[in-house]
Amino acid sequence: MSILRDHSLATAALLSLILGSSAWAKDVYIAVAGPMTGSTAALGAQIRDGAAAAVDSIDASGLLPDTKLVLRIADDACDPKQAVAVANRLTTDGIKPVVGHFCSSSSIPASDIYAEAKVIQISPGSTNPRLIERGLTTLFRICRRDDQQGEVAADYIVRHHQGAKLAVLDDKSTAGKGIADIVGSRLRAAGEHTVRQSYVGGEKDYTALVSRLKREGILIVYIGGYYNEIGLIVRQAAEAGARLTVVANDPLMTSDFLAVAGKAANGTLFTFMPDPTKNATGAAAVGRLKASSLSAAGYTLYAYAAVQAWAESVKRARTFDAARVAAALRSGSIATAIGTVRFDSRGDNAAPGFIVYRWRDNTVEAAEQN
Question: Sorting pLDDT into bands at 50, 70 and 90, what band is 12?
């Protein structure tokens, strides 16, 4: 099965309108790359749906005259080797921008290939700081960074659970270990003692890990990882009678975590960026997603905004040339579905960072505002 395929979310009537009005338009290919299969596929679906909805909206709006955007979907399964294969394929296929990848372990090696080929890359979900700190001028990140996220999580733990027995866990992935190291360092700097341990992602049985935490009287566990394994740990801890409060990172912003953890998800805390659905600038995008029976949750609107930012910068630069589009992306503020985006000189989004959320009664609520 090919890892690439064309995709459109438009209705038949809208497709007819677009094709009829742009029969002689130039096809410009955009790619969205991420985990469309595997244990993090729910997050890949979020960025796929957001990018696809944005492509349809821009095609219909006439923002880029005489141009028809065509979306290609690339599956990296959150695997670095597959991400490199995807990047090599996309660059030879003449892709203009890539929205992706999601996992930092995929984005980092793929970004070197895109940079060499002079292809714009905008990641909606790779939070590891190292991604942007290598001087690649065509690389951008529309989500926020783990040093911001880790600080928010650690400070929350200190404010609300000071003196409790703490553990910091990670799944050995680039993103999971990176954020857990930041949280652990911040907690130690605040005078907290932590048990530090890693686990193997992709396993089904974490009862030995849970038993150790219970035996040592751990009450607060910070976990850097992905929703599937964290959901299993949360559920198995509840089944073992361990009195754990779990605090985790941004991949928990998906109902798939709830499906894995079940009732034990209640009370689980995690960090994520401010909810763009609460922002009036995202109302039109949310409406389009709902009209297509899609959710605007999680990273969906961040992928939508990545496409918007690129398209607006193409309009400003009056060219698809990557160097000039990159300069336009850095040249000033851009209105998007997640609010105003302003990329700094490195390519990071300079907007505010993270807040703490809580799963409660099958929904997500803000635990506190930062």
Answer: very low
pLDDT tens digits, 68-117: 999 999 999 999 999 999 999 999 999 999 999 999 999 999 999 999 99
Paired residues of 357 in beta bridges: 270, 366
In sequence order, the 6+-apart residues with CB closer than 8 A to the CB of 245 are 161, 219, 220, 221, 267, 268, 269
**How many of the other CB atoms lie within 10 Å of CB of 97?**
30
**Which is it for strands 363-368 and 355-360: parallel, antiparallel or unpaired?**
antiparallel
Packing angle of the helix pair 174-189, 104-116 (nearest 10 deg): 120
Burial of 293 (0-12, 13-18, 19+ CB in 10 A): exposed
Yes or no: say if 302 and 53 are a contact pair by the CB < 8 Å rule.
no
- Residue 107: count other Cβ atoms within 10 Å of its Cβ: 32
Cα angle value 40/201/130 (rounded, 5°): 75
Structure tokens at 278: 């609460």
> CA–CA separation, 153 vs 133, rounded Å?
22
Q: Quick: pLDDT tens for 242-276.
A: 989 999 999 999 999 999 999 999 999 999 999 88
Nearest to 246 by CA among 164, 129, 174, 182: 164
Whether 294 contacts 309, CB under 8 Å: no
324 touches 316 (CB < 8 A)? no
Q: Give the whole-angstrom CA distance, residue 239 versus residue 87.
A: 42
pLDDT band per the 50, 70, 90 thresholds, residue 281? confident
Please choose, from the candidates 224, 154, 214, the residue with its C-alpha nearest in 3D space to the C-alpha of residue 190. 154
Q: Count of alpha carbons within 13 Å of 49, Cβ hemisphere only? A: 22
For the stretch 140-165, pLDDT in tens is 999 999 999 999 999 999 999 999 99
